[in-house]
Amino acid sequence: MTQDSREKRLDSVLNMNRRSFMKTAAAGAATTAVAGMVELKTAKEAKAFAYEPYPRDDQLTTVVTSCAHNCGSRHMLVAHKQGDVIVRLSTDDGRFQKNGAFGKDTDEEPQLRACLRGRSYRSRLYSPERLLYPMMRVGERGEGKFKRVSWDEALNFVASKMLAIKQQYGPQALLDQSYAGASYGVLHKSDQIEGLLGRFLGMFGCRTNSWSVPSYQGTTTSSRWTYGTIEDGNEDDAFAHSKLIIMWGWNPAYTFHGGNTFYYMRKAKQNGCKFVVIDPQYTDSASAYDAWWIPINPNTDAAMMAGMAHYIFDNNLHDQEFIDKFTQGMDEGTMPEWAKNSPNGTENFKDYILGKYDGTPKTPEWAAEVCGVSAEDIKKLAHMYATTKPAALKASWAPGRNAYGEQYNRMAAALQAMTGNIGILGGCAEGVGKGWHAEAVAYPYDQYANVWYASIKSDRWAHIVLNYPNVSREEAGLWPRNDQLDGVVPNIRGIFWQGSDWFNQLTNINKEIQAIKKLDLVVCMDSTITPSGLFADVLLPVATHFERHDAALPWYKGHYYIHRPKVIEPLGESRTDMQIFTELAYRIGDLNPQGYGMFGKTYNPKANRDYWINPDPVDESYLSDWWHNKVMHHQHVDMSWEEFKQRGVYKFTFDKPHVAFREQIENGKPFQTASGKIEILSSELAKISDWKRTRYGYHVPSIPKWIEPWEWLNSPKTKDFPYHMISPHPRWRTHSIFHNIPWLRETYEQEITINAADARKLDIKNGDIVEAWNDRGKVVMPAYVTERCMPGVVVLHEGAWLDVDENGVDRSGNPDFLTLDEPSPAGAFAYNTVLCNIKKSDLTHRPGWDKLATARSHVFRRDL
Ligand SMILES: Nc1nc2c(c(=O)[nH]1)N[C@H]1C(S)=C(S)[C@@H](COP(=O)(O)OP(=O)(O)OC[C@H]3O[C@@H](n4cnc5c(=O)[nH]c(N)nc54)[C@H](O)[C@@H]3O)O[C@H]1N2
Ligand SMILES: Nc1nc2c(c(=O)[nH]1)N[C@H]1C(S)=C(S)[C@@H](COP(=O)(O)OP(=O)(O)OC[C@H]3O[C@@H](n4cnc5c(=O)[nH]c(N)nc54)[C@H](O)[C@@H]3O)O[C@H]1N2
Ligand code: SF4
Ligand SMILES: [Mo]
């Protein structure tokens, strides 16, 4: 085909009005809602309306699918359709699985019942903020002014810009900021490591990767150092067997970590299990389990744990047999020979705790000064933990999302090991806590995944852009390479967002706002007009998981697969991510046939160019291959792909609960570490002498230690900024997703939680509008005054949609205007290492750009 005729064909293909766009008047008509900035043509009248009338079940067809995103779990959604419109969503009622019957719900095969977010998904699908057409920026970057363009124009613009940037600036100029918005699908994946964007930019030959994960880089690094794997999690049903559950910085009532956690924890409670919560807030989990609440100064968990370890050693309550058999470096007797001559590995953990090296025994009294918990309580908890068997110390990720967060998780692992609670039913070794191993990717990801030319600590991008070329490799957190690009700090000229709202979710947004101005290309691929999208040059509308074919994976816990058929046709002109990357690859090949002639075919080997028109047969083929070759072959599932598609779910049943490291403890299988042991002394760290050449950049002790954070309640900075702000995850949102959902918004307000005594000092009453600020930024929101939060600490949930005024003040109450963009050496984001001040404000809070959502929780709290 000549270039000319191909262009013509594509022209007609790409600009074809394939569907009378909009069976969804709701979506079309209201896309003006981004502060009135986006103007679209009026949509055709709808044949069915997404919200009413309310049809009877026998008038509807039923399709099983799953909910989505990086939300802490993965549940079934059942779509009830009229024509091509979803009019109702329900959830698992037992009947879809093998041998299922209506209502089936057993311990072995519990229902995968959706939470309120999932059940509201219909209003996300048809939301006014839904991105329906490609758009290009017309105003200044960040001004939020866009015009609708054809796919042709948008894709050609991106393809030619990519080529120009790569040619001028080399293979590191484009930054991959894909994240987990769609990481729990098998085929349509957004992810830093296995995602579609990484594969696309890597194959194109121009990619800077973002290696540290916001969720749990401290925890991940700790789990890998200690156990050699992040699969250190039990399945949820194991909780039912615990006699003591310590929820350390863990609030599963809000922040999901698996689908049926609460169900099994309730069973534990019924069996007489005791519960403890260590958290600056008295959480709903604390109240649900009538737990002993131990409020703790944020960022001081490693110190409190060290105090517990001291008590346990001092009273000889540790499990010496377990220590001798399974650990390295817990005490002098478990130190390896080689460590004596290592640059960083001569110390053992017990002697550190007893104060042999620094003259400071880490007694409960010492710890009390640091963490604000009384020595009595530290001793009492240590005693409970060491003498109750089995006991689950579930050390969640938030206390690791801190300066030196990795030390907290390592310290927790030391406690888990010294009490012999690893590899046994009812105990807990988590860490990251990934449970059963899912077959996570469909071909073609197995090939060319994760090729990069520079890889930075993810929240350093703005710092690098603003200071280039005066940035050192350790400041950037560069991952080492074995070639001439080792240590070369990238000159970042463009950013891609796919499955990520990172501009809204990373740290120190004011710095990001400065940095983004300097770039040559910003591309946002999303199904929603997001706060990040407002800072893009090009918005590419992406079909949601209801509008494409895939299979869903559990989120860290759970052992099942859920089928995701294409439930409805893609809304507007949206295309799947896979279609967009495939077509972009072909276009780059058109523009530069010598260099990239095969790009499209290599990127998506099963597809031809007509994939843009109809992706279904190719997607089906990838997925059925995945099911046959991986699920059936590797995991010995005997259900056929056809049957799976017909039922919608496959739940594995195990003959006993899945417990991490059971094999190691029961049968002596080596751990996946260098020594084959649980490494309290990390072999890797012990051998490092030149820190600058590592991805850490700075010294990390080879054993768990308490290290003072940069800012916290005991630092001099409290003179100006006396409150420690933590920013946990919201119950009503998945990060920023669902912020614009009116049904959910009725249940909450983006508010800052403050202790009643602090509020009185500041003359702040419940519902008053307040501002919180530090030297990085200022945010405005209502106050929630309560005694459920300890004095000196304020709580502001992450994920509000940023809304900056002309003075740079964020009126939405997004905590990332106050967070610090300096990660911990091991890469942990320091989201919870924040001091600020707070006062009553005359400024107005703006709860969202969405016109429909209204927060009403204050109505119910008025008389508090
Ligand atoms: N202050 C503070 N900030 C935090 C945190 C904190 O604790 N405190 N937590 C951090 C953590 S742990 C995380 S994980 C991050 C989350 O940061 P993000 O991953 O940026 O947050 P999400 O809001 O989940 O954004 C995901 C985006 O992906 C889009 N998306 C979903 N599915 C698809 C798809 O199939 N294709 C495409 N192209 N897009 C899709 C969604 O519409 C959404 O806009 O936030 C971090 N931010
Ligand atoms: N509903 C909902 N569930 C989610 C998500 C969501 O956005 N919404 N996101 C998912 C994702 S991507 C992730 S990474 C996980 C995150 O899971 P987690 O990290 O467990 O969750 P967080 O909500 O950040 O924090 C949990 C608790 O830690 C407390 N905390 C904060 N700082 C400290 C501290 O320094 N010390 C102590 N002891 N406690 C502290 C908070 O008050 C909070 O109650 O959640 C997942 N689940
Ligand atoms: S927990 Fe997650 S997957 Fe489950 S229904 Fe809620 S938002 Fe959806
Ligand atoms: Mo996360």
TrEMBL record:
A single Gene Ontology CC term: outer membrane-bounded periplasmic space
GO biological process: anaerobic respiration
UniProt keyword list: Iron, Iron-sulfur, Metal-binding, Molybdenum, Oxidoreductase, Signal
GO molecular function: electron transfer activity; iron-sulfur cluster binding; molybdenum ion binding; molybdopterin cofactor binding; oxidoreductase activity
Cofactor: Mo-bis(molybdopterin guanine dinucleotide)
Entry keyword annotation includes Oxidoreductase: yes
Domain 4Fe-4S Mo/W bis-MGD-type: 60-129
Cited Pfam families: Molybdopterin, Molydop_binding, TAT_signal
NCBIfam families for the chain: TAT_signal_seq (TIGR01409)
Protein family: Belongs to the prokaryotic molybdopterin-containing oxidoreductase family.
Name this protein carries in UniProt: Molybdopterin oxidoreductase
